[in-house]
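Can't attach files on this board, so I'm pasting raw text. These are the components:
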Amino acid sequence: MSEQFKLNDQDLIKGCVQGNRASQEALYSRYCRKMMVTCQRYARSTLEAEDILQEGFIKVFASIKNFRGESKLDTWITRIMINTALNHQRQKLYLLPMVDVADVNLHENEDMSLADFNLAELIAMVQSLPDGARVVFNLFAIEGYNHKEIAAMLDISEGTSKSQYSRAKSLLKAKLENYSIYGKLGEAKI
Amino acid sequence: MENSEKQKFEENWRAAFKDAEQNPSDRVWWSIDSALTHAEGGSMKRKIVFYKRLAAASVILALALAGSTTYFMNEKEQQLAVNTKQALEKTPLQNREANESYRENPVGTGEDDKLNTSKPDINIKNETSTGKEIQAGRLYSTNGNRSNAGNSLVAIIPSENEFEPEPVSTTTGQRFGMYAYDPLDEVYAIDTRLKGRMHEVTIVRKLPAMPASMMADSRRKSETKAEKLWAGIGAATGSYSYQGQGHASDVAAFSQANSLLNNSVQVSSNSSSRGSAYSLGLNMGTRLSDRWVLQGGIAYLNQSLDYTSNFAAHGPDNSIRAMVAEYSALKSDVTFSPTTSYQVNSVNELISVPVQAGYMLVNRKFGLQVNSGVATDMFIQNTLSDKSGGLKPYSESAGSESPYNTFSWAALAGTEFSYKIGRQYRVSLAPGLRYTLTPMMKSDQRSTPLMWDMGFRFRYIFN
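---
Top answer:
Structure tokens for the assembled complex are below.
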């Protein structure tokens, strides 16, 4: 086992603050896989996710001297990745302003399990959502923000956040059902 | 009910992505690495600009000092030097003859040049110190086609207010009446009045044969021209700041690396943040241009650092030896055991081959030089010794099994204040710093010590 993996987060942080490239690489190696999934959830494609990941880690190394240890390191990095992803999406969100959509009330089974789907399929489902709905879904369902916080973060109304989430949810349910019926994600019909 | 179902939907998705990991492509790290390198390059450029400005400011300051010094020296040299001269007994007739002689031969030499009164009708009564009278006179400058290497004036100073000063020009050459604006004149006038006698003084004005700045330049060249190649010996001592492992984190690293230890016993070693170092070396240098020099050499380097450790190593001969945590990761074949805390002295010995470029800010008898360069350090050995003497020392030399890298690089920067003794020797004081660029230890990427030292060098200059 490489010596780098013996170092704890504090050691890595110290090394990164000093600009030690080995520590930076070790920190990246430790968290890049988890952060890649986060970036993929917000991006439309793997390529875009990698761009967000790259930009996010550069921000991490640039601002790690300001990390005070009040939260866990991975939580802090995740927050930077989300902010970076939102900045990436913001231009698109402005171009396609989110408006309230009719609350889709599909009466499918809420208890549908995701255990039958692998990670790549789930990521593909999320990535296929419209930009606004995808961002709100990630912030609400995965990150755990409430609609008021999301509205403030995206500079939209709370109602818009709720309706976008409702849309995302109904679309995902439809995709899951279609997948169960047709067996292939690519043939899912919404 | 509906709320709980909704929550379940979100929980399912959250659980699906919790701890999920996906490998990004290698290009991501390459891009990050490249961006970081670029950023560091920018930072380095800013530093270089700073040092360039610092160098420029130093040069301007040096030029200003040199300029002002030259100016004041030049002023001093142009002051009239007073040289008492033998008194002359000259009658008006003789004066006229002298003037005639000068008209005929304006580049004349000897006393004729020094005596030039242009008022032949003045009755001059001379009296030397031996009792002869001199009467009435004034200062006149001869300014013909003579060499500007020197210029003499004759002063015949009145004892009383016997005549008014009046500048006069002659047809043979331009002459200047100096009486009105020569401060020395007044001094001598007072003296002569007190004595009530006339004295003749010759005021010698030495004019520079060439501009003073050129004289200074030629002096500098003559003093330093011969310093094209030199060799010397040097020694330095200073402080050694170590930034490797050696604190609380060692405990975790140690425990992971040595399953032989009982996990309930915490063992560690803590290093001081600062140690001492000294070096001894031979060096050579050559001048590349007027200001730039290249220096190199070889030096023995000794770096000493104190630790507090609470464990020891059992050697193959059942001896118990001093040990620190830095070794633990690479010493799986050595058995460790906890001890009471004791002081360990860790000494690194290296051979260093430095190469430095130097820029001479001041290049005179006194020299000021800034140096910068790199050194290749070859690790010889490290010795851990128990300061109380209870445990045997533990030594590690270079090699594949060693926790130390055989080679490492260090950046060097420093200043050199030197003084030339005689024609072939120069001594200098050289404060400097050495920062290890590549880690000294294989297991610790941060083992890049910083060393400040003050060196003394003795240089022999080959002619």
